[in-house]
Write a structure and sequence with these properties.
The chain is α+β, with helices and mostly antiparallel strands and 429 residues long.
Length: 429
């Protein structure tokens, strides 16, 4: 087994220091319970540090630590070049790709890596598997808490459903294992140069989705293993969140269209149909949320024309400022923060209005309410099935997500589309 780490951030304190690598500006931090790890690394000519050892059951592994971050596709290219020159065994059964700000082993969670590895080894048709990624320190701020609920509900529902069809659509580069033989089959297409804006959104910003799509197209299955848990840090400020989601939205749209065009599995037709609906909704959600805000405003007794005019003016201003693309500018940042606050207040008003006159609201918007409460019931049921009901039934995180939803589904998509030509990573160097 081989692990490939990229160094560009600090890891959570739950990991233990193993060694300082000469000439590297970051320390290697790794916890593998029950493992035997070589403390002194082998330094390759390009500065990569190679650690070797064995897991608790005698499975040999190697840890490759890059000197600097040049993207995940660069990491994958390095791995196979090291395999071809004998640094990594050609008989390796799995590659674990993990970001340096991800912790996957701590007290009470020491079997996650084993669960991923065993799934890959036990099912020959599985080309890759991923675990459940949780937000570390989610109680630190409302923005982080909202992302915690979003991560949980997405994995309980989307990834579980996709895994049932053998088609997890994204093996996140932050924490997943891939079968080397499967990745080697698609390596030529996956590592091709990205020369256009479209290709860079697909390959450089959404390389994990592209890799997954190519594996699925080649006939491999992909799996979700909820027993394998990992912790990651989430953006704690609105500016960092919008920058991150700009990258996510653009790369997801491009790669989802690629998947629907290239992957054809009759047995997974219901999943492919739902993915097509999800792709279309990426463009319709901003309009749906703005219409919801219109309904909230008119329900509050404000003149219909005044509400419609204010929303139209806001949307136009949002597009103009998004095209400017400078979130670091004080006035632009103020507008985005003010918009998030107004959106949260509108959600608060909606809750109050529904609570005060539920019967009237149900008579007029019964379908919307049935869908909303039905979705909430499914999330709760899924959390109980996954034995993590406390993660979503705690009222704080779902409420934070609800209050942040106008930002996630109006500001972020519009900003992303207006900055489609921005192919910078956004949140990390």
């Amino acid at each position: 087994m081989s692990l490939l780490l990229r160094l560009y951030g600090d890891l959570p304190s739950t990991c233990a220091r193993v060694s300082d690598v000469p000439d590297l500006d970051k320390c290697v931090v790794l916890t593998l319970p029950g493992s035997n790890l070589q403390v002194t690394p082998q330094l390759l000519p390009d500065g990569t540090a190679v650690y070797t050892g064995t897991l608790s059951r005698g499975v040999p592994f190697a840890v490759l630590v890059k000197r600097s971050n040049h993207g995940k596709r660069h990491s994958h290219r390095l791995f196979f070049s090291y395999m071809h020159c004998g640094v990594v065994r050609r008989t390796a059964n799995a590659i674990l790709f993990v970001d340096s700000d991800v912790s996957f082993a701590w007290k009470g969670n020491d079997g996650g890596l084993r669960a991923l590895y065993e799934r890959l080894v036990a099912v020959p048709s599985v080309g890759g598997a991923c675990g459940e990624i949780e937000v570390w320190g989610w109680t630190s701020s409302p923005i982080v808490a909202a992302q915690h609920f979003e991560y949980k509900s997405n994995q309980f529902l989307a990834k579980s459903c996709e895994s049932w069809f053998g088609m997890v659509t994204c093996l996140p580069g932050a924490f997943c294992v891939v079968r080397p033989r499967a990745l080697e089959h698609v390596l030529g297409h996956y590592l091709r140069p990205a020369k256009t804006v479209l290709a860079r959104n697909q390959l450089d910003l959404g390389e994990d989705r592209t890799m997954t799509t190519l594996l699925l197209e080649a006939g491999w299955r992909t799996a979700y293993v909820p027993e394998a848990r990992a912790l990651t840090e989430a953006p704690a400020t609105l500016e960092r969140l919008v920058r991150q989601r700009r990258r996510w939205v653009n790369s997801t749209v491009v790669n989802m269209a690629l998947l629907l065009r290239r992957v054809h599995r009759p047995a997974a037709a219901p999943l492919l149909l739902s993915l097509a609906v999800e792709l279309v909704s990426s463009f319709t959600l901003p309009t749906a949320v703005l219409l919801l805000l219109y309904q909230v405003g008119t329900a509050a007794g404000i003149n219909h024309s005044l509400v419609a005019g204010a929303i139209a003016a806001y949307a136009l201003l949002l597009v103009i400022l998004s095209l400017a693309g400078d979130l670091g500018h004080e006035q632009v940042a103020y507008f985005f923060n003010a918009s998030a606050a107004v959106g949260a207040f509108a959600m608060f008003l909606m809750i109050i209005f529904i609570a005060q006159s539920f019967g009237e609201f149900f008579a007029q918007y019964w379908l919307e309410l049935v869908v909303a409460f039905g979705w909430a019931a499914v999330v709760v049921l899924a959390s109980v099935v996954h034995r993590q009901w406390t993660s979503v039934l705690g009222i704080a995180a779902p409420l934070c997500w609800l209050f942040l939803s106008p930002t996630l589904y109006v500001i972020v998509p519009i900003y992303a589309v207006c900055n489609f030509d921005d192919v910078s990573w956004g949140t990390r160097g």
